[in-house]
Amino acid sequence: MTVLIGQLFTGVSIGAVLLLIALGLALTFGQMGVINMAHGEFIMAGAYTTYVLQQTISAAGWSLLVALPVAFVVAGAMGVLLEFLLIRRLYARPLDTLLVTWGVSLILQQLARDIFGSPNVQTRAPDLLTGNIALPGGITVANNRLFILALAASAVVALTVALRVTPLGRRIRAVVQNRDLAAVSGIATARVDRMTFFIGSGLAGIAGVALTLLGPIGPTMGTNLIIDAFLVVVVGGIGQLKGTVIVAFALGVLQASGEYLTTLSVAKVMVFIAIVAFLQWRPQGMFTLRTRSLA
Amino acid sequence: MTTVARDPVTAADPEPPPTKPAAGPSRHRFRAAVGFAFGAALLFAVAPLMLSDFRLSLLAKYLCVAMVAVGIGLAWGRGGMLALGQGVFFGLGGYAMAMHLKLADAGPGNMPDFMLLYGQLDELPLWWRPFASPWFALPATVLLPMAVAFVLGSLVFRRRVRGAYFAILSQALAAAMVILLIGQQGTTGGTNGLTDIQGFFGYDLDDPVNQRMVYFIIAGTLLALLALTRHLMQSRYGELLVAVRDSEERVRFLGYDPATVKLVAYVVAAGMAGLAGALFVPAVGIISPALIGIVPSIEFVIGVAIGGRATLLGPVLGAVAVAWARTALSERFPGTWTYLQGLLFVVVVAFLPGGLASLIGLARRRDREPADADPPAGLFARLRRRREAA
User: Fold this and answer.
1) Is the pLDDT of residue B2 over 60?
2) Transmembrane ranges (chain A) (predicted)?
């Protein structure tokens, strides 16, 4: 029983990481239909932001707290720049967007290599987040995992509230549901696109901050994350957030239990097979916006 | 979604204008034959005479990449399926060949050197055993990738998973395969892959004469694949494939099954990638996860994009040019090459989607189809008439 709950928590914490890295994509890919392969590099930018801030603010706790908003703005600004320079010219060609943003991600990786060097760098975690908490029943939970879980949960809540309540959120939803109608109703769709991209990319920056608590920061860290993040959004279904949340945790638990029963590599393959099987059942993902389009 | 798709049902499809008799099929065929002979002369006579043994073996490697590119050109340029995981099929072919050669190097009854090195196994794993026979291993280099592509493709295309979804799934397949290979180090060689391959069906691969022979095999195979691809593109199936790329729903309404049409192109492309992987092994002497993962898989695509994705020769020339530029530049300025590669992706795909071939196309628009244009005039009308006649 203890093992089961322990594995469940491992799964949930893997899921929380998946959720954080996929949340921004749920917005840019899910809501806008843009395939941004440089999203992983925005995560990397967030991680390096944390690293740079820790060089200036030596108190690990404060630098982490400051890093959250700063990384959001840094990654968001990179996203807006990318949207403005390239992506808005390619809205009608999603597959080409994929290749173009892959090129951008190559350039960003090399930039990181030139600025910070090829070897990985590491940040110090604040003391508060290094220990474990013992829960009743003999289960220990790592503090940093708990922090990431809380961060993921608050990011989802904040994003949901922003989309539901704020005027910007209303405009974003309007553009997703019917771009032409939104445009004739007086919404500046291009500006809404840019803001959506800012928030989605900014969330990648937040994910980057969280990942510094789990491992080293390196120029290629984004490549390893981007596929997982896309799979979460694809399986979750585009156009809304709840699918992304459910699927992130489901894949996390699946991978944790697969890892427990077999090995890491077999678990990864199992997850892939499960995804292909799932898409047989629901090719559009778990939840979809119903539209009348044929494509 | 901002995709401004034409309504597939009502969009006007002009009847083909009466074609000039000058550009008849026989003239096309004659020009293709001349081009083919020219290419063969270049590969079989000029290159071996002009290039040193070292350069020739590099060219052999590039031509393997070009074989993968021909398949991607068919699947992506003509079929609209952005296959980002061709490294998987390249790897399946390569590993099948390398397993056989490793077993042949070790001699009958012995285990390959790396298995003894890791020392986890007492005897050859069961799934290695069939590869001892060339009669199993050689067909497997092509049939194994085709089988995997068939399974994945038929699952995915029948459920109408397409576009970006398909691209991401195919990329995830590459990621999964690499993780699996690295994880099973005892039986696959892990990160190192299968290295240090000495012999090729009794011929010593260190001997330059035999390297030359491998080059000739590769060049001949590439020419054969090009002939096959040209035949496919010119056939009725080729027209159907382009139609599916441009408007899958319209093709469905005409009574064809787009899933089958796409599946054929995907499986053929996988077979070409497998063959390329199999020939890559004797040419280079190694196959490893680093050659087949996400990054190399997407690098196969860039050559195709640069050369012209929907043309026959564009992918070949693009792939060879990119591979050559990579070797030339990354030796001297490793960082610069990554920047250049990134820029190539951005500039070519965003601003020149037809690739360099479209520049030639602009110059010779009169007697050539545009490299990557809208459906050829009257394509759907032609398909409809055929369907009604049948």
Assistant:
1) no
2) 6-27, 59-82, 146-163, 197-217, 229-254, 261-281
Interface check A190 vs B, CB under 8 A: no
Confidence (pLDDT) at B34 = 85
A contact test, residue of B165, B166, B294 with most A CBs within 10 A: B165
- Six-digit token string for B359: 């520049």
- Token pair recorded at residue A280: 């047989």
Nearest by CB to B164, which of A98, A113, A280?
A98
**Model confidence, pTM:** 0.86
pLDDT score, position B335 = 78
Residue whose tokens read 């991680």: A47
Query: Within 10 Å of residue A145's Cβ, how many Cβ atoms?
Result: 21
Dist. CA A241–CA A178, nearest whole Å = 18
Reply yes or no on whether the pLDDT at A161 is more than 90. yes
pLDDT, one tens digit per residue, over B104-147 is 888 877 788 888 777 667 788 888 888 988 999 999 999 999 99
Q: Which of A174-178, B122-126, B244-248 has the highest mean pLDDT?
A: B244-248
**Mean predicted lDDT score pLDDT of chain A:** 87
- Sign of the CA dihedral with B274 first, then B278, B284, and B289 last: positive
Question: Using an 8 Å Cβ cutoff, are A110 and B339 in contact?
Answer: yes
List all residues 6 or more positions away from A55 whose beta carbon is below 8 Å from its beta carbon: none
Q: How many contiguous H segments (helices) and E segments (strands) does chain B have?
A: 17, 2
The residue of chain A with its CA nearest to that of B171 is A227
Looking at domain A2-281, which CATH architecture does it have? Orthogonal Bundle (1.10)
Domain segments of chain A as ranges: 2-281
A-chain residues within 8 Å CB-CB of B80? 95
| Cross-chain residue pair A86–B346, CB shorter than 8 Å | yes
Q: Is B123 exposed, middle or buried (0-12, 13-18, 19+ CB in 10 A)?
A: exposed
Nearest residue, CB atoms, B161 vs list A98, A263, A283 = A283
User: Which residue of A94, A227, A264 is in closest CB contact with B175?
Assistant: A227
What is the complex's ipTM, to 2 decimals?
0.84
Q: Does A294 touch chain B (CB under 8 A)?
A: yes
Q: What is the DSSP letter of B204?
A: E
Q: How far apart are CA B321 and CA B344, in angstroms?
A: 12
A101 vs chain B: nearest CA distance in angstroms?
7
Question: For B248, which residue in chain A has the nearest alpha carbon?
Answer: A295
Q: How far is it, in rounded angstroms, from Cα B381 to Cα B1? A: 29
Q: Indicate yes or no: CB of B183 within 8 angstroms of CB of A263.
A: yes
Residue A122: pLDDT band with limits 50, 70, 90: confident
Q: How far apart are CA A102 and CA B360, in angstroms?
A: 27
Q: Smallest Cβ distance to B343: which of A103, A109, A276?
A: A103
Q: Which residues pair with B199 in a beta bridge?
A: B204
Measured between beta carbons, the chain A residues lying within 8 angstroms of B372 are: none
Please state the φ and ψ torsions of residue B204, each to the nearest 5 degrees. -80, 120
Q: A241 is written with which tokens? A: 């957030």
Q: How far is A225 from chain B (nearest CA, A)?
A: 11
